[in-house]
């Protein structure tokens, strides 16, 4: 990475010209917390950023930043949601569904956020959303987004992988069409959700808060450098692609869990799962093992909010992505 | 500890006779889970015990055991409580308060549990309640009860301290009059609550479940041995006594937290806190230190359910208790 492409020699400049993608400067960014009201690192980080702006003015950050407490009623009650999971309400279909008095609070509020930050899929949509989440899973810092070909987002992920060394930084790609993508960051042109864990919901841990803060600071840093003309070199980067979900063993009649995540799998998010590895330990002491052929990587292992969704963990495949060199398009 | 006092030599028997307290055999024991509906180890352990009884009959345990899912509506909704914290509803005053249609669900249900397991303070009260709890604090296995002179309970605590080696086992004494004691186990003649952590509320971890199961198994084991005539020798044991609670730093107007537990204090429950030690790290980066004179031991550090109670952690004093040798009184 070179800080000022205007200082390149002629030969170097040609090389950059050849390989570089010239992309528009990024305008405004939104930092959203409390999309799930009991994921507290994001709630307190957004409140702290709002306090800083009040104290020091808009110039506190080198780029324009909007801060949003996404689900204020759920934050107030320290619950994930009031009527329905808001981070499933941002598909194009749900955002354009007709509203009635009996529409779930979160669907109504998702449409308001789309008016504020979107409209999703339009030229008016905000350039970047960072949506802040916590998980009870031992996922370190995980950056989740929807496309392997959004080079701005991929470059920011790569930048965070390079800059943040205290915890593992993984990139997770869902790879679904953006219109079907149902989470808040799909409203913006670029963007990702930031998952940091392990942290119990309803609790804020300083170590987890500081990792989240560093991720937001480094994202702002990247955008500022990019807009200022820094060339970000391409190359290979590691990412994970969502494959499928696995549920807990359950009683066939009552649907209650009959087993917990096995102690040998607990806290080992993104390990390589091989045939015969233990998955679950039943409450009466029997081990359930992984019996599939392909080796995959489990993540969101024992996430609190996924019990009701029928998910004990997700499985992902590891990918190596090649991304191009990017720099800002000059006017 | 000798398994059969009838096998002692004459001289030994005299020594035991001199020092021993002869106490009545213990009858029925209750194992209660789900007093807080989102503390899942106890919920799943009670359900597993009920499954075992169904499969193998009452003889599955060597003593009579009643299993209770204490707050079924809160368990159903995976919430701590519906209207009010049920584990604050078992004082003599609350148990005898008149019921109306608008009485909180938990107060009504506490009175039903008192009818089932009490009456509190009466000769009919059940001999022993183990009430199962989880905490987001790193408290290992902590046994909480109300009196330093309930020798049966103290002996069981000492037995668990000896037998369970995978995690630290601490004994915490609240030392309040039993009529004021507001938690479920105060209904029984003896008893304690079992706290195991760290575990996020709404999550079950196999490692935490197994520790709780071992504590219940060892309690049943002690009662069976005691009833069978085993002499349990007295001596010194370590315990902690509750002194006071400390709240988070909060915004004076909004009452919202302005700081989290400091990373150097987080997860260090029962450490020795000295003047100048860090307590909190504010969201803007300032450290708040411990400025009191006396050295005390913090516990329930960053417990999720205590945010709303205004408690960042409790402080305790370490005690050495001397307990007498006990054995069962023969009919």
UniProtKB/TrEMBL annotation, chains A, B:
What are the residue boundaries of the Succinylglutamate desuccinylase/Aspartoacylase catalytic domain, all occurrences included? 28-221
Residues that, per the record, bind Zn(2+): 36, 39, 133
Q: What is its main location?
A: membrane
Keywords (alphabetical) are: Cell membrane, Cytoplasm, Hydrolase, Membrane, Metal-binding, Zinc
Which parts of the sequence belong to the AstE/AspA barrel-sandwich hybrid domain?
236-318
Q: Where in the cell is it found?
A: Apical cell membrane; Cytoplasm
Q: How is the cofactor bound?
A: Binds 1 zinc ion per subunit.
Q: What is its EC number?
A: 3.5.1.114
Q: How does it sit in the membrane?
A: Peripheral membrane protein
Q: What class of enzyme is it?
A: hydrolase
> Active-site residues?
195 (proton donor/acceptor)
Domain of life, per UniProt, equals Eukaryota
Pfam families reported for this sequence? AstE_AspA_cat, AstE_AspA_hybrid
- Which InterPro entries does the annotation name? AspA/AstE_fam, Aspartoacylase, AstE_AspA_cat, Aste_AspA_hybrid_dom
Task: State the Gene Ontology terms under molecular function.
Answer: aminoacylase activity; hydrolase activity, acting on ester bonds; metal ion binding
Write out the catalysed reaction: an N-acetyl-L-cysteine-S-conjugate + H2O = an S-substituted L-cysteine + acetate; an N-acyl-aromatic L-alpha-amino acid + H2O = an aromatic L-alpha-amino acid + a carboxylate
Q: Which cofactor does it need?
A: Zn(2+)
Output a single Gene Ontology CC term carried by this record.
Answer: apical plasma membrane
Q: Which family is it part of?
A: Belongs to the AspA/AstE family. Aspartoacylase subfamily.
PANTHER family under this entry?
ASPARTOACYLASE, N-ACYL-AROMATIC-L-AMINO ACID AMIDOHYDROLASE (CARBOXYLATE-FORMING)
Q: What is this protein called?
A: N-acyl-aromatic-L-amino acid amidohydrolase
